[in-house]
Amino acid sequence: MSHKKEDLLIAAERLFYAHGFHAIGLKAIVQEAGVALMTLYNHFDSKEELILEILNRREETYYTFLEKVCTKETGSIERKLALGHLLWLKQNPSNGCMFLRAKEEFENEASSLIVQKAQSHKENLLHFFESQGLSRANSIQLSLLLEGSTSLAEIMNLDEIENALLSMVACIK
């Protein structure tokens, strides 16, 4: 991947996550990335294509991050995944779930690939948990807990969330 494309993706993800997808135009992204508008169009045919690449990339980064944490932690797989998610929340600005935010912003656009990606991400998350050895039911339970912790991280202290989450994860059977 070219350095300029990487700069565009980093800038766009940061801006979209902080301000929303519709609120940020392509000019703001190229200005933040320090590249020309034509450079953006050399890499992406549309804003939708850019958003989809950001969502795909974020999903992959999140799963890789969780897998890495799981290899270092001890305890049940549910606990390892919860610890990984908490560490993700601590290392990233807390502005809710980027996928749900995308779904909310684009849900009124007929056949939006962005909405489809957001929906598939939630199903992919369950499959990811299942690939780590959890049953479907336990994957849903863990997903509910992690989604809730993401929401609460916007308004609460992460230490409180961590204690509650780890306590609840211990109850998954």
The largest pleated sheet is described as: none
Overall mean pLDDT: 93
Low-pLDDT windows of residues: none
Please state the structural category.
mainly alpha
- How far the N terminus sits from the C terminus, by CA atoms, comes to 43 Å
In angstroms, what is the radius of gyration?
17 Å
List the helices and strands in order: HHHHHHHHH
Specify the helix fraction band. Answer: over 70%
Cα shape: elongated
Counting DSSP E segments of at least 2 residues, the number of strands comes to 0
Beta-strand percent range: under 5%
Tally of helical segments: 9
Summarize the structure in short.
By secondary structure, the protein is mainly alpha-helical.
Question: Would you mind describing this structure in some detail?
Answer:
There is one protein chain. The longest helix is centred in the middle third of the chain and has 26 residues, at 47-72. The chain is mainly alpha-helical and 173 residues long. The protein has 9 helices and no strands.
Give the SSE map.
Blueprint: H1 3-19, H2 26-33, H3 37-43, H4 47-72, H5 77-91, H6 98-106, H7 113-131, H8 136-152, H9 158-169
Which terms would index this structure?
173 residues; mainly alpha; 9 helices; elongated
